[in-house]
Specification:
The protein is α/β, with parallel strands linked by helices. The chain is built from 8 helices and 6 strands. It is globular, with a radius of gyration of 21 Å.
């Protein structure tokens, strides 16, 4: 039989007080957040998980019967689990437009051409109010390398449909992209299996 000591009762009382204060603060913040708008979310940083988090948002949107478009700017030289999975859904347009990582292609002109082609497709989605969510996977990478004009990208984001959500992934997000975003998450690496000699695994990286 569990006995509640005076010490336990004090801890429980203090916990209840802290949670009551926290709830009051959170409730006040929720009350002040009274606007609806399409959100621009940026996942950046050197750690793993930026695209994975983006595809988590895609899954959430599909759960709400939203129409989704995905443009992958770098990936494309190999098949990924997310592509195989999400292409099953009629509510999603999945465009794999890249030709692989830049250190693999070693051809700047080809990389620029692929990025420009992907951006033209992305702009079609970013002008379409029937698309609820657009995922621009690894857009930050092509902007980092100067394959696209960041000012054009920012201008397009500023003039997207009001209620359309956009997720942008990739390390080294430019300041202009951070400035136009509503939410920015930077992922920091603590430890990575690859550095201990473990190759990319299906279901984890592929």
């Amino acid at each position: 039989m569990n006995r509640v000591t005076n010490n336990d009762a004090d801890k429980n009382a203090r916990h209840a007080e802290r949670m009551a204060r926290k709830k009051a603060v959170i409730d006040e913040r929720i009350a002040k957040a009274d606007r609806d708008k399409g959100v621009v979310l940026v996942n950046t940083g050197n750690a793993k998980g930026k695209s994975s988090a983006g595809f988590g948002v895609v899954a959430r949107a599909l759960g709400h019967d939203m129409r989704v478009a995905v443009v992958q700017f770098v990936k494309g030289a190999f098949s990924t689990g997310e592509m195989k999975f999400f292409q099953r859904f009629p509510e999603i347009e999945f465009c794999v437009m890249g030709e692989g990582f830049t250190w693999e292609t070693q051809d700047r002109e080809r990389d620029v051409a692929a990025a420009q082609k992907a951006w033209q497709r992305a702009k079609e989605f970013l002008r379409n109010p029937d698309i609820d969510l657009v995922l621009l996977d690894e857009l930050n990478i092509v902007l980092k390398h100067g394959y696209l004009d960041v000012n054009e990208v920012v201008d397009t984001l500023k003039h997207k449909p009001e209620m359309q959500h956009v997720v942008i992934t990739g390390r080294a997000a430019k300041q202009e992209i951070i400035d136009v975003a509503d939410t920015v998450t930077e992922m920091r690496e603590v430890k990575h299996a690859f550095k201990s000699g473990i190759r990319a695994q299906k279901g984890m990286e592929l």
